[in-house]
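sry for the spam today, last one i promise. C-alpha cells for design, 162 residues
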C-alpha cells in the first residue's frame, strides 16, 4: 500500500508539472505569435501608407485645388471625381482602334486598352495598358473645366518589349 501511495503521489507531481509547463509554453507561443502578427500588420500599414503617398485621396494640397468656393467658383468633391475620371478614361477602351490615351497605335489585330488607372493628384494620372501581348504605361494630364467636362492629354508613354 505504501508503494502504491508513493507511486500515486509521484504520478500526481509529474502530471502537475507537465500540465503547468504546457500552459506556460502555450502562453509564450501565443505572445510571440501575436507580437509577430502585430509587427507584420504595422509593416504592411507603413508600406500601404508609402504606396498611397502619391494619391489624390491622401494629398490635401491637390484636394484643395478643387475647392474654388473662395473665388466664387464651385467645389468639386474629390471622392466623387476619382471614379468619374477613371470611368471616363476607361470608356475610351470601347473605341474600335483602341484607347487613344495610351499613346499607341494599334499593332496587329489587338487594340491597346487601359487596364488600371491611378490618379496621382489634381493634374496627373498614371495608367497601365496592354493589347494582350504588349504592355505599357502612360502618364496623362487631366483637366476639369467649370462645366465638369474632363479632358485628357498624353504626356509620356512607354511600351515594354516582349
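last one done:
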Amino acid at each position: 500500500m505504501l508503494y502504491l501511495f508513493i507511486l500515486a503521489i509521484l504520478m500526481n507531481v509529474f502530471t502537475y508539472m507537465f500540465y503547468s509547463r504546457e500552459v506556460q509554453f502555450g502562453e509564450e507561443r501565443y505572445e510571440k505569435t501575436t507580437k509577430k502578427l502585430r509587427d507584420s500588420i504595422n509593416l504592411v500599414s507603413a508600406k500601404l501608407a508609402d504606396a498611397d503617398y502619391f494619391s489624390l485621396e491622401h494629398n490635401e494640397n491637390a484636394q484643395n485645388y478643387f475647392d474654388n468656393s473662395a473665388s466664387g467658383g464651385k467645389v468639386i468633391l474629390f471622392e466623387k471625381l476619382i471614379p468619374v475620371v477613371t470611368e471616363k478614361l476607361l470608356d475610351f477602351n470601347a473605341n474600335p482602334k483602341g484607347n487613344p490615351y495610351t499613346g499607341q497605335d494599334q499593332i496587329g489585330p489587338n487594340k491597346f486598352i487601359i487596364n488600371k488607372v491611378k490618379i496621382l493628384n489634381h493634374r496627373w494620372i498614371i495608367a497601365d495598358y496592354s493589347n494582350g501581348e504588349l504592355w505599357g504605361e502612360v502618364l496623362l494630364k487631366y483637366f476639369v473645366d467649370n462645366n465638369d467636362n474632363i479632358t485628357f492629354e498624353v504626356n509620356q508613354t512607354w511600351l515594354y518589349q516582349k
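The longest helix spans residues 2-51. ok im logging off now
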